[in-house]
Write a structure and sequence with these properties.
By secondary structure, the protein is α/β, with parallel strands linked by helices. The chain is about 50% helix and about 10% strand. Helix 13 (about 365-375) crosses helix 16, helix 20 (about 495-510) runs antiparallel to helix 21 (about 530-540) and helix 23 crosses helix 25 (about 590-600).
Length: about 800
């Protein structure tokens, strides 16, 4: 490298000595700095690119481009020194530096940049390098901006070479160093250009007027807290079969599985032949030489808690029946959902055990357990310190003080009572919901305290946790020292879960009467509210909206139940029409668009990613317009990979290298991968958090986003409300259309405007995606990276929009003064 630097310095001196022209300066010096010092590749650099405006044509010497950033370099011959080069490293782009040949070169480069929408510029004669922001979007004027100056080749290649390369090298630019140094941040999205900030609640639907009449029953039946209900209710709602789907025909995608967590196959109670695995282990606990240690594992919302409660109160109910005469098994739930970080895990566990002891018929009976738990203490005191007490009453009073002292301290009393109880009959300590806190240290403390307590008191231990939590802790000394038997809870079929909950709701509402105010203002009476649940059930199960709930929940039962509750509350605005039609024809299908929209919005009046059950694939939240569709770019590749074969995952290093090839940093890559996993569009094969060395695959939800939802009118028109619009003309057009939609009363005219807004947005996003695809194509990336999902789905979106308009015309077109309800 030293020889190369020496050669370049000599070459610069010779070029200057012989008054070399611009072409020779570029070929022999500037090209070498760009390619060999700054490490830009041929594919990154465009030479002599046309710059046209107002009928005139000139050519830019160099334009360096990645998918994320571009830099224009204007070259001059080395003999033509810039006549004004301040001694400072950084100067304002006003005053002296803008005079003479220096100012002319800066203005020329700036004009080129404005015509080509390029943010950064460099002017150089090979020896002197002036770097500055040419086009700003943050309301800072050009004259208030600063340039960074390297006043000699000796500085560029010598004492300031590290600084020079950190700014202009390919790695430095991709990492954002140039942007941070010149404008103070990597982001370029400064104005607030999201429609949901200006049009909150525009066109929001009213609540379902029948919902207050059925709310209590719906909340009871569709709550994940069904586990707290009576045994019959729990048994009716529990789904025993797992979702085994391996291929989604609608989107033609293989559904991937994560890597196995154990060398041997864990028991799977959601499969028929292993359905009694935990119950059998519990039943055998009395004869076991050592206590049980069981791990209940599953993904978020798969029903680990429900499975535990079903086992305790249904499958093993007879085992835990209480006896009035002798000891009996104990199941003690410790639910960490009510745990506060202000207390220690061991205190929380002890307090829960203490409450159980106080309430339990066996443990709170002095003659059945307490006196036996303290038998050794009583004998020791009687033959020792209290030997001289003459009266029985005095001795009992002193023993009572000893017991009460332990009782008030909690810990010693719990140890005595639970230890004694476990010696007479199995005690099961069940630790659940330990991963409510994403805090590894707290989780580790809970594990360590629970395991130590179980070992000390010789009791059975059952711990339920997410697979990802186990992955994060399985190599810890605490887990290594304890031999757990794993049980894997697979996600149940969501349609089966919903079917049971609808059936239960209908039973609870059977023959219940009520009345509500219909859309026309009339008082509408209902003789049997369960009929409305029948209508909803037939509109959901086996229909598109049912599939949407299934897909959007992504195996999370809690989420599926929440979505169903929310669309029942807000998704249907005209139940009177539904009930009237059903009463006459015995058939009615509720509008799927209303239901889907209410699911997307949740309890908000307009879509916001922060509050919705589904993330926005159109906005990567990187704060940079050129990277706005990076989520979609990566997700599209993952979906293609899963469509190509049955083992469709992509390694993290491969994703990182491909994104770096088109111009994005490792930090950008990890932000996008983390978001894709958090939004449930993708998963890691290892169950753990998103990391560089993880392997990734698209979830079923991710597949539906790319292959289905991108063509859904309802989906697109809602998520566009929370998508940043960087192009000012497009932004103004979308704002204007949104104002018109807000003011329009005619239903058909309104939906035509909504269609126009949706297509305007979508076409703009197609152009936003093109640079990513262009760079990927130019750099010959693997074919999975070369799709354009927006273009592929646009014809289907147009057909769906056409259907929506035709439906509006058919239903409302002939009616004067239509008003959208």
């Amino acid at each position: 490298m030293a020889n190369f630097i020496k050669e370049l310095l000599e070459r610069g001196s010779n070029l200057k000595l012989y008054d070399a022209n611009e072409a020779e300066t570029r070929k022999k010096l500037i090209d070498r700095v760009i390619e060999d010092v700054l490490d830009w590749k041929d594919l990154d650099v465009a030479y002599e690119e046309r710059v046209s405006e107002d009928g005139g044509t000139t050519f830019a010497d160099y334009i360096i481009r990645t998918a994320d950033v571009s830099i224009l370099i204007e070259a001059k011959r080395i003999g033509e020194s810039f006549n004004v080069i301040p001694g400072q490293k950084k100067v304002k782009l006003s005053g002296q530096v803008m005079e003479g040949r220096t100012g002319e070169a800066i203005r020329q480069a700036r004009n080129y940049c404005r015509k080509k929408s390029i943010p950064f510029a460099v002017v150089t004669n090979g020896a002197q390098w002036i770097i500055f922001p040419a086009v700003r979007t943050d309301q800072v004027s050009f004259s208030s901006s600063s340039a960074i100056i390297f006043d000699s080749l000796e500085r560029v290649l010598g004492e300031e070479s590290d600084y020079f390369k950190s700014l202009l090298s390919r790695d430095g630019v991709i990492d954002g160093n140039l942007a941070i140094e010149l404008i103070g941040r990597k982001t370029d999205q400064f104005e607030e250009r999201r429609l949901n900030k200006f049009f909150k609640g525009v066109g929001a639907k009213a609540a379902n007027p029948i919902y207050p009449l059925i709310e209590n029953e719906v909340v009871s039946a569709f709550s994940d807290s069904i586990i707290n209900s009576d045994r019959d209710l729990l048994e009716k709602c529990y789904v025993k079969n797992a979702d085994r789907q391996k291929f989604d025909n609608r989107i033609q995608m293989h559904l991937q599985k994560r890597e196995p967590l154990f060398l041997s196959q864990p028991k799977r109670p959601m499969r028929k032949r292993e359905s009694s695995s935990l119950s059998d282990s519990i039943a055998a606990a009395s004869s076991n030489a050592r206590p049980l240690a069981i791990l209940i594992l599953g993904t978020v919302g798969t029903g680990k808690t429900t499975f535990l409660q079903y086992t305790r109160r249904v499958a093993s109910a007879s085992y835990f029946e209480k006896s009035n005469t002798g000891p009996y098994p104990h199941w003690i739930d410790i639910d960490f959902r009510s745990f506060s970080k202000n207390e220690s895990p061991i205190d929380f566990i002890y307090n829960a055990l203490f409450e159980y002891i106080k309430e339990d018929d066996y443990f709170n009976d002095y003659n059945r357990s307490i006196k036996y738990a303290y038998d050794n203490d009583i004998k020791t005191l009687k033959s020792g310190p209290m030997f001289l007490l003459s009266s029985r009453e005095g001795f009992d009073e002193q023993i009572t003080k000893v017991i009460m002292d332990d009782y008030n301290k909690v810990g010693p009393y719990v140890d005595k009572m639970i230890g004694y109880g476990a010696a007479k009959s199995p005690v099961f300590l069940v630790i659940d919901n330990i991963d409510q806190f994403e805090d590894d240290r707290t989780q580790s403390e809970i594990f360590a305290d629970a395991i130590a307590l179980a070992g000390r008191l010789n009791i059975n231990l059952i711990i339920a946790m997410r697979e990802s939590t186990y992955v994060g802790h399985r190599s810890s000394p605490t887990f290594d020292a304890f031999d757990f038997d794993p049980i894997h809870i697979e996600p149940p079929e969501i349609p089966s879960v919903l079917s049971r909950r609808f059936f239960l709701t209908g039973q609870m509402l059977k023959n219940k009467k009520g009345s509500f105010t219909a859309l026309n203002g009339a008082d509408f009476k209902v003789e049997d509210l369960s009929v409305f649940i029948d209508i909803v059930k037939s509109s959901v199960l086996g229909t598109e909206i049912g599939e949407r709930i299934d897909v959007l929940s992504n195996h999370d039962v809690r989420l599926a139940l929440r979505m169903t509750r929310e669309f029942l509350a807000r998704g249907y605005t005209d139940p009177a029409k539904a009930l009237q039609t059903f009463g006459t024809t015995k058939r009615y299908t509720l509008p799927k668009q209303e239901a889907f929209r209410s699911i997307l919005l949740g309890n908000q009046s307009v879509y916001s990613e922060e509050y919705s059950v589904i993330g926005n694939p159109f906005d990567s939240r990187l704060g940079r317009s050129n990277g706005e569709l990076l989520r979609m770019f990566v997700l599209s590749a993952l979906v293609k990979q899963s469509s190509n074969n049955g083992s469709g995952s992509v390694d993290g290093p491969s994703i990182r290298d491909n994104l770096k090839a088109i111009g994005f940093s490792e930090s950008d890559t990890m932000d996008v991968l983390s978001d894709l996993c958090e939004k449930r569009f993708a998963h890691t094969k290892s169950h753990g958090r998103a990391e560089v060395n993880s392997s990734y695959f698209a979830s079923r939800l991710g597949g539906h986003v790319i292959r289905s939802l991108l063509s859904d009118f309802t989906f697109v028109e809602n998520v566009l409300m929370d998508t940043f619009i960087s192009d000012k003309d497009v932004w103004n057009e979308l704002k204007e259309l949104s104002h018109k939609i807000s003011d329009e009363r005619d239903i058909v005219s309104r939906i035509r405007l909504r269609a126009q807004r949706c297509e305007t947005f979508y076409k703009y996003m197609i152009t936003q995606y093109q640079p990513l695809l262009g760079e990927a194509t130019k750099r010959n990336l693997d074919p999975v990276w070369l799709g354009h999902p927006l273009e592929e789905m646009f014809p289907e979106l147009q057909r769906n929009i056409g259907k929506a308009i035709s439906s509006a015309v058919r239903n409302y077109g002939q009616k004067p003064n239509n008003v959208l309800h």
